Amino acid sequence: MDKQFYNQEEGLSRSEIEALQLERLHSTVEHCMGSAFYRKRFADSNVSVSDFKTLDDLRKIPFTTKQDLRDTYPFGMASVPLDRCVRLHSSSGTTGNPTVILHTARDLDQWANAVARCLWMVGCRPEDVFQNTSGYGMFTGGLGFQYGAERLGMLTVPAAAGNTLRQLKFFTDFGTTVVHAIPSYAARIFEVMQEKGIDPRRDTSLRTLVIGAEPHSEDTRRRIEDMLGVKAYNSFGMSEMCGPGVAFECKEQNGLHIWEDYYIVEIIDPDTLEPVPDGQVGELVLTTINREAMPLLRYRTRDLTRILPGKCPCGREHLRLDRMKGRSDDMIILKGVNIFPIQIETILMQFEELASDYLIILETLEDNDYMTVKVEIKDIPVDDYAKLKALEKEITRQLKDEILITPRVRLVPKDSLPKSEGKAVRVKDLRKQY
Ligand code: ADP
Ligand code: ZN
User: Fold this and answer.
1) Closest ligand 1 atom to the C-alpha of 330?
2) Which bound ligand lies closest to the C-alpha atom of 122?
3) Is the CB of 148 under 6 A from ligand 1?
4) Ligand 1 atom at minimum distance from 323 CA
5) pLDDT in tens, 159-215
6) In this structure, what DSSP letter does residue 323 have?
7) Separation of 252 CA from ligand 2 center, angstroms?
8) Which ligand is nearest to the CA of 89?
9) How far is the C-alpha of 156 from the C-alpha of 60, rounded, in Å?
10) If residue 88 lies in a helix (H) or strand (E), which one and from where to where?
11) Is 429 helix (H, G, I), strand (E, B) or coil?
C-alpha cells in the first residue's frame, strides 16, 4: 500500500515536533555564531547561546527583517564560508537593494524533500506528469518545484512561464496530470482553452493544480477547480524561506500545514510586536531550524495570517495556517480605512457574471481620494446597459458593506485589463502624495 506520509518527520506528534524543534533551535543558534551579522546581534542584545533552554527562549532574540537582508547584501548574513554554498537566489530589488539567500548542497536537498512532501500529501505519485508554469531562474517557484517534483519521481515538464498555446500542447502531448501555476495564470490557461475549443475534462488528463505565490480567495480556488475540472491546492512559500514548500494544503483543503521540523512559527501583532492570542490574525514570523548556509532567526515575513485551531482530520499534527490575507505592505489605506485587496476579490468572485481579472485604482480628484474597481465581465452582452448598471450597483453595495467605503465599480469587457506575466498586479495607486 501507498505510504501515508512522505517521510517520518511529517507524521510526528505535537510533543515529538516540539522536542525536535528545541533540539534544532539549539543547533541553529550555535550555528548562527558563524554569521558576523548574528554574532553582533547577539552581543548587542546580551543574548548568549547558553540562554536557550525552552522554545519560549526564542523570544529573547531580536527579529530579523527584510531590511537586515538588504543591509547585509550580498553575503553578510551567511553562517558558513562561501565555498560551502552551491546556489543563491536573489530578489529583484525593485524597492531597494536586492536580497540574497544562499544555499548549501544540504539546504537544496532538504528543500527538495519539503516540496516532495507537499506534493505527495496532495496525492502526487511517481506515475504523474508534472508541468511547471513558473518562471525559472531567480524566481524560486521554478527550480524549487522542479527539484521537489523530481525528488518525488514524477516525470517533470519544465515548461516555464508564458506561451500558453505551447503549455496546452504539452498538456495533451505529454499527458500532464499535475500543474503548478499562479492563480491568475490558471484562469488564463482556461481562457485560452476555451478560445481553442479545448475541454480540459475531455481533452486533457489534468487532475491536480498547485496554486500559490499570490493571495487568492476561496471562491477563486473553486472557480479554478470548476473551470479545469481539477482539485486545486494552496501552496505558500517565499524566497527567504527557500521558496515553495513552506506550507501547503492537505486534501482537506482547510488550512496550510506549515512544516514545523523546518520552521518555528510565531504570529505577532505587527504594531506591538507581541504574540497575538491563539487563532487571531497577525504577522507570520518564522525561524528556520533546518538550514545551513543562511539560517534566519525570527524573520518578519510581513504576511498576515492566523493559526487555525484544532486538529486536522488528515492526521498531520504540524500547525495549519489560514489562507494568507495579504502582506502588511499590500494594505490599502483609503480615507483612514484599512483595506486588503483580497477582501475586494472575495466579493467580486461571488458574482457568476464576472471573469477573474480585476484592478483596483486609487486616485485623487479635486483633492479627494477615490477607489475605482475595474472588473472584467464574462458573458453579459456589453450593450445591455440596464443590466450592466444594475450589476454595477449590486457589486458596489456589497463592496461597501465589506470595506466601508463606496468604490466606483466599472464593468469592462473580457481581456481589456492589462495582463502581467508574473504575479498579478491588482492595485494601481495614482493618488497625489502630499
Ligand atoms: P517576492 O517577495 O518578490 O514577491 P517571493 O516569491 O519570495 O517573491 O514571494 C513570497 C511572497 O508571496 C510571500 O511572502 C507572500 O506574500 C506571497 N505568497 C506566496 N505564496 C502565497 C499564497 N499561497 N497565498 C498568498 N500569498 C502568497
Ligand atoms: Zn491536514
Assistant:
1) 16
2) 2
3) no
4) 24
5) 999 899 999 999 999 999 999 999 989 999 999 999 999 999 999 999 999 999 999
6) P
7) 6
8) 1
9) 44
10) strand 85-90
11) strand
Ramachandran assignment for 179, one of left (phi > 0), alpha (psi -120 to 50 degrees), beta (any other): beta
State phi, psi for 416 to the nearest 5 degrees.
-95, -15
Query: Is the CB–ligand 1 distance for residue 295 below 6 Å?
Result: no
In terms of Cβ atoms closer than 10 Å to its own Cβ (0-12, 13-18, 19+), residue 384 is: exposed
Q: Which is it for strands 155-157 and 427-430: parallel, antiparallel or unpaired? A: unpaired
Report the nearest atom of ligand 1 relative to the CA of 327. Answer: 16
pLDDT in tens, 352-410: 999 999 999 999 988 889 999 999 998 777 678 898 999 999 999 999 999 999 999 99
> Which grid cell sits at 398?
456589497
Over residues 299-313, the pLDDT tens digits come to 999 999 999 999 999
Within 33-163, residue ranges assigned H as helices are 36-44, 66-71, 105-121, 140-152
**Which triple of cell numbers denotes residue 112?**
527538495
Return all residues near 433 (Cβ < 8 A) that are at least 6 apart. none
In contact, 286 and 63? CB cutoff 8 Å:
no
Contacts of 173 (CB under 8 A, 6+ apart): none
**SS3 per residue for 17-69:** HHHHHHHHHHHHHHHHCCCHHHHHHHHHCCCCHHHCCCHHHHHHCCCECHHHH
Q: Whose CA is nearest to atom 25 of ligand 1?
A: 215
Distance 301 CA to ligand 1 centre (A): 9
Ligand with smallest separation from the Cα of 318:
2
Cβ–ligand 1 contact at 220 (below 6 Å): no
Q: Which ligand is nearest to the CA of 302?
A: 1
Looking at ligand 1, which residue's alpha carbon is closest to its atom 9? 238
Residue among 322, 384, 329, 391 nearest 354 (CA): 391
- Answer whether 301 contacts ligand 1 (Cβ < 6 A): yes
Residue carrying the nine cell digits 492526521: 315
CA of 86 to the centre of ligand 2 (A): 34
Q: Which three cell numbers stand for residue 46?
A: 546580551
- Which cell goes with 369? 481620494
Give one DSSP letter per residue of 244-293, joined into a string: S-SEEE-TT-SSEEE-TTTEEEEEE-TTT-SBPPTT--EEEEEEESS-SS
Using DSSP's 3-state secondary structure scheme, residue 183 falls into helix
